[in-house]
Amino acid sequence: MAEKIQKHDFVELDYTGKLGDGTVFDTTQESISKSSGLHAHDKVFAPAVVCIGERQLLPGLDDALVDKEMGKEYSITLSPEKAFGKKDIKKLKIVPLNAFKEHKVQPHPGLQIDMDGERGIITQISGGRIIVNFNHPLAGREVVYDFKVNHKIIDQKEQAVIYLHNSFGIPKDKIKVEIKEQKAMVELPFEFPAPVLELLSKKITDIVKLKEVNFTKKEVKK
Fold first, then answer.
1. What digits encode the pLDDT tens for the residues 76-103?
2. What is the pLDDT of residues 18-35, one digit of tens each?
3. CATH code, 1-85+139-154
4. 3-state secondary structure string across the chain
5. Which regions of the chain carry the CATH code 3.30.70.2210?
6. Mean pLDDT by 10 residues, the chain (222 residues)
């Protein structure tokens, strides 16, 4: 019997997200991206590497991976609640035209903007008021995901790097991990507040199954 995936396993997987009519909106596979018109020269298509149960994927896809067999292909339909969420009228916001003028941006319907860390699309312009929709473009939509788990990642150093990279977007080559006698020393390119490091230490200790995790900041040569 093939090995099954469990919560807190670190795995490499391929997936393709589609709408109900078969339109592909996301994939890890370059061949599918080209055939579906998603191919972009500045995007690297590669398998995703995640920790199951840590919401590093859509909630429904993350949940669906538990108890699945490695190497077997699956397809699952996700409701809006388990995918990109329901449409929320509170995420339709009115932004004054002056806010765009201050940043020398000429607003028009369909323009994507980034405001206070949120991405939105201008849907309507009425006088000096701009209506911006901050819902995800696929909010309210049922989606289908085809996926296959390629293999587990069992190296503890790699697991710790993956967790930090996925959680904070830190480049993998900027994270240094040394493990000796199940005690890890993690070197990061910048400092986190002490309470955050305490929580991180406990989290990584639990999911990577270590005795202890300590952090240090990389020394910058003057």
1. 999 999 999 999 999 999 999 888 888 8
2. 999 999 999 999 999 988
3. 3.10.50.40
4. CCCECCCCCEEEEEEEEEECCCCEEEECCHHHHHHHCCCCCCCCCCCEEEECCCCCCCHHHHHHHCCCECCCEEEEEECHHHCCCCCCHHHEEEEEHHHHHHCCCCCCCCCEEEECCEEEEEEEEECCEEEEECCCCCCCCCEEEEEEEEEECCCHHHHHHHHHHHHHCCCHHHCEEEEECCEEEEEECCCCCHHHHHHHHHHHHHHHCCCEEEEEECCCCC
5. 155-222
6. 90 97 94 84 86 96 96 97 94 90 88 87 90 94 97 97 95 96 95 93 96 84 56
Total-model pTM: 0.84
Q: What is the pLDDT of residue 1?
A: 65
Q: Which CATH number fits domain 155-222: 3.90.550.10, 3.30.70.2210, 1.10.10.10, 2.70.98.70?
A: 3.30.70.2210
Q: Right CATH number for 89-133 from 2.30.30.240, 3.40.50.1820, 2.40.10.330, 3.40.50.720?
A: 2.40.10.330
